[in-house]
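Two records follow; treat each independently.
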Amino acid sequence: MPTLRTEIEINAPRSVVWEALIRKDEWRRWNTFLFDGDPALRICQGQEIFLSVRRLEDDEFTDIEPLITLVQPQVCLRWVARTPGFRSESSFELQDLSPTRTLYSHQERFKGILSNVFLPFIRQDEKQGIKRMTRQLKRYVERREYRQYRKEKRDRQYRSSL
């Protein structure tokens, strides 16, 4: 089964990375690979959601309707998108490296009789897209964490000056 995989270390607790990952209505703030097609649909196991994929930043959107197959809070999110003869499974996994560092992994697996037809055309673009999303998630979460750290530090300084 052809697989694309990328991972990155993020300087933030797993809970913060998870929150950014499951709030698909906020993806537009940081994610240029996946776009939320219906913010009213929440990410929950057994739910079908509507997304658009943009493999290359200047490319057209491709609409997908994946079925969420697994939600393990702060650990793993998986969905499957199907068209006749083609199946893609997306997996987003989080692991603690320390209390303030998380390993984020994004994996795409393809199968089906038409995967041999589609993959030569989308493999490189899909890989670029998931790598871009991974970098963007890291940047978004770490900036958010830094802003929160600075706010808490200012609040502590303010309280101690009273």
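The next record belongs to a different protein.
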Amino acid sequence: MQDLAAPALLTLGLVAIGGYLLGSIPFGVVLTRAAGAGDVRNIGSGNIGATNVLRTGRKDLAIATLILDAGKGAIALLIARHLFGETAGAIAGGAAFMGHLFPVWLGFKGGKGVATFFGLILAACWPLGLLAAATWLIVAFALRYSSLAALVAAALTPLYALLPLPALGLPAPASILILAIFTAVLIYIRHHENIARLLKGAEPKIGAKKT
């Protein structure tokens, strides 16, 4: 048993490192700099995600950032799952999510993880991802708060993972449930400023112009 345990742990460790490095690629920074749009960290909120990239006035860069940020978590999970199984996939995906939030290249100051979260959950279990995305759309449309929509979607995703819907692959495997909980907790941590503004009624709504 010990002879088998060491290679397994080594594999999972390498999967985690690979996932983190892939997730830590700051596409928002890379794309805006390459396009001559400046450093996105010096614009608007200073966040490296697609929403702040949009403040450069370049919709094409914002869309590309959104797709790439969502894709890097999904790719990390899918490759690791294909090669080493479900647990390895979840570890790689979680590590990629950590990489996006805390990239070593930017002093561990990364994005808030919403796009990466949705890409990750869609890759992990597409019905679960669709439920999470539908939740975001409903809350965002009804209340006009993007951050609140993300927080509600993140909180409900672990509960969706427990739904007894075998035709849709639910309940999800334990590794995916743990991944959903892990990413939800980190989203809440990274959105602490948004939560404070929501409680004060100071969070800007979707479409509102900043003063």
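Discussion point: The chain has ten helices and no strands. How would you locate this feature using only the token line?
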